[in-house]
Design a protein that fits this description.
CATH topology of the largest domain: Alkaline Phosphatase, subunit A
Distance between the termini: 53 Å
Keywords: Signal
CATH architecture of the largest domain: 3-Layer(aba) Sandwich
Structural class: alpha/beta
Helix content: 25-40%
Oligomer: single chain
Pfam families: DUF1501 (PF07394)
Order of helices and strands: HEEHHEEHEHHEEHHHEHEEEEHH
Number of strands: 12
């Protein structure tokens, strides 16, 4: 007897999964646009990624983590007040090319300090933890209408919450186990191919496997360490570039929880930022001409404390940084309602306050780039969010 568990086991052996929803809605992405959502799990230090070096209190409060405009590992100046971490060299090039918009002291409605709850609100799009049981990007896919084919892809073992829900999405990861031979695939197809429920999902999974195998057919990837983000972003870019490939992708690299030995211009956070910067640029190259139709959103669940802790790191905070970049972005701008770093300006005397709502950023991209209606954004995608206005002119 064919059952769901058997099929999932077979698909896992293929190195990929595909969500099985009998009432799936397929996403109709307008035109030929691409959207990539990158979730930095662990709460990126926004004041490290985007140092407010022009604030008179910045250097003294940041202490050993302060970045300078001069000397070794100098920050990359943006506007004489804000800069970028020196590891974000490609981000700086995007900014100069007006393909990067920077957001500061921004956060979801969540105001506590639990990673689990913060990521739940970030991905669910609600007001409180566990308010939503599916993701805002999946609900946006439903709002885009119906279209046959695989349109949304999670570069992860299973779709994260932001991409989970009624609309169909697939998952893909580079192979970590020995590749089964072609005879195995033939036997699996013969076993499940005629099943009305599971057969179409298997066919979809096999098609995606063929695409991913082609996308990853690059000898330069074979000697890269597994922890390297490059194969994931490069593979996603190649899949998105394909004529019949997905048009939406989600990546969620972890490792941004820097309580200990965070480092300033060099160190663990610098290495992580450099890896992300290089990986996104590899995705840009893999996208080729499709980069012009692409928007990449980079967000995290909350910020970190302004002051350095006793372990030379930073603790969970509130206001953080986010980025919107890509060939379809109207960038070269910093969006920050800066209130300074004086103790009375900080939340609880320790955090950057959140002066902007991340949902405004998400709404702008979904409306201007993906054509989601205002009614859907305010109602189903981000419930009861009518007072949260999109940012106009974020997409070219």
């Amino acid at each position: 007897m064919i059952d769901r568990r058997s099929l999932l086991s077979s698909m896992a052996a293929l190195g990929l999964t595909s969500t099985l929803t009998t009432n799936a809605a397929f996403a109709a992405v307008p035109g030929d646009r691409r959207l990539v959502v990158v979730i930095l799990r662990g709460a990126l230090d926004g004041l490290a990624a985007v140092p407010a070096y022009g604030d008179p209190d910045y250097a003294s409060l940041r202490g050993s983590l302060a970045l300078s405009k001069t000397g070794a590992n100098a920050l990359l100046d943006l506007d004489g007040f804000f800069g970028l971490h020196p590891a974000l060299v490609n981000f700086k090039a995007y900014y100069d090319a007006k393909q990067l918009a920077v957001f500061h002291n921004v956060c979801t409605p969540y105001r506590d300090r639990s990673h689990f709850d913060g990521q739940n609100v970030l991905e669910g799009g609600g007001l409180t933890p566990n308010m939503m049981h599916d993701g805002w990007l999946n609900r946006a896919l439903v709002a885009m209408g119906g279209k046959k084919g695989v349109e949304a892809l999670a570069v992860a073992p299973t779709p994260p919450l932001v991409l989970s829900g009624k609309a169909r999405a697939s998952s893909w990861m580079p192979d970590t186990l020995p590749e089964p031979d072609d005879a195995y695939f033939t036997r699996v197809a013969a076993l499940y191919g005629n099943d009305k429920l599971l057969g179409p999902s298997l066919q979809s999974a096999m098609a995606l496997r063929a695409q991913s195998k082609s996308a990853m057919d690059d000898p330069s990837n074979k000697n890269k360490p597994k922890a390297d983000l490059m194969p994931l972003f490069q593979g996603a870019g190649r899949l998105l570039a394909m004529q019949d490939g997905p048009r939406i992708a989600v990546l969620d690299p972890s490792g941004w929880d820097t309580h200990v030995n965070e480092g300033a211009g060099d160190g663990q956070l610098a290495r992580r930022l450099s890896t992300l910067d290089s990986a996104i640029d590899a995705m840009k190259i893999a996208l080729g001409p499709a980069w012009k139709q692409t928007v990449v959103v980079v967000a995290t669940e909350f910020g970190r404390t302004v002051k350095v802790n006793g372990s030379l790191g930073t603790d969970h905070g509130t206001g953080g940084a986010a980025f919107v970049l890509g060939g379809a972005v109207s960038g070269g701008a910093i969006h920050a309602e800066w209130v300074g770093l004086k103790p009375d300006a900080l939340k609880d005397g320790r955090d950057l306050p959140a002066r902007s709502d991340l949902r405004s950023l998400f709404k702008s991209v979904l409306a201007e780039h993906m054509g989601v209606s205002r009614a859907a954004l305010n109602g189903s995608v981000f419930p009861d969010s009518g007072t949260v206005k999109p940012i106009k002119g974020l997409v070219a």
